[in-house]
Amino acid sequence: MIEILFFFLSALAVFSAIMVLVSKNPVHSVLWLIAVFFAISGHYVLLNAQFLAIVNLIVYAGAIMVLFLFVIMLMNLNTETEPQKHIWMKLAGVISGGCFLMMLISLVRQAVEMGGRKAMMAEGDIGLIKNLGKMLFSEYVVPFEITSILFLSAMVGAVVIGKKH
Amino acid sequence: MPIQYYIYLCLTLFSIGIIGVLTRRNAIIVFMCVELMLNAVNLLLVAFSKMHHATAVVGDAATNAGIEGQLFVFFIMVVAAAEVSVGLAIIVMMYRNTHSVDINFLNRLKN
């Protein structure tokens, strides 16, 4: 059952990711990317990382993608105004990306350390919010506070950059 | 599930993101492909954290080994949210100045 779900979610993620690139309309690309995020959240649930599954849905599919949709609708982008690269440039990009993929896959196939290692599926409680919260607020409390400064600076930066002169 | 399957899946998603950055000219799509790459890395970090936990839990049933990977994923999401807000502000500013989201307008960083 877990294998079926794994392969279904993997196929969904890869297909949706390809559709993000293939879609001419930017709004469709955003919707396909949301499908990718849902598939990845499904993978998190399979790995019993429940906290990350929910955070992935809320932060990525909820907040970030809505921000993208707002910006796209603000700019009134559609298929006609979509800039296109030359076909040879596209081909070169696909070939170089494919070479990168082939190189990394052959690297992983040769790695003896990975032989027989398994990811724990549907059990193990390190992904639960209780354990993650304990760790986050005890050992990692300084980085956690620093992220609040990061957010503040990002907010100030976004306002300053987006301000009309 | 063997860890190789997760590595292959994440490599595929990451490469699709790279191909998108290389082949598209719309700045927003390029930005979305960067998000796709970040998510591929997140998934791989969680898979490795569960792999590490699976070997550590054999010796000690109550261990928390591998939880750092999931915390890193949390921090990556935080940084990604900050990055998106600043990046989209830059794209909006660029659209206001050039009335286009074509990244070829950015190749001279002037005017």
Task: For the structure shown, list the relevant keywords.
heterodimer, A: 165 residues, mainly alpha, Four Helix Bundle (Hemerythrin (Met), subunit A), B: 111 residues, Helix Hairpins, 75% helix
Describe the structure.
- The complex is a heterodimer of chains A (165) and B (111).
- Chain A has 165 residues and is an all-alpha fold.
- Chain A has six helices and no strands.
- The model of chain A has no long low-confidence stretch (mean pLDDT 88).
- With 111 residues, chain B is mainly α.
- Chain B has one domain: Orthogonal Bundle (Helix Hairpins), CATH 1.10.287.3510.
- In chain B, 75% of the residues lie in helices and 0% in strands.
- Chain B is built from three helices and no strands.
- At the A-B interface, helix 1, helix 2, helix 3, helix 4 and helix 5 of A face helix 1, helix 2 and helix 3 of B.
Short description:
With 165 residues, chain A is mostly helical. Chain A has helices at 2-22, 26-46, 50-75, 87-110, 129-138, 141-162.
Explain the layout of strands and helices.
The complex is a heterodimer of chains A (165) and B (111).
Chain A: H1 2-22, H2 26-46, H3 50-75, H4 87-110, H5 129-138, H6 141-162
Chain B: H1 3-23, H2 27-56, H3 67-98
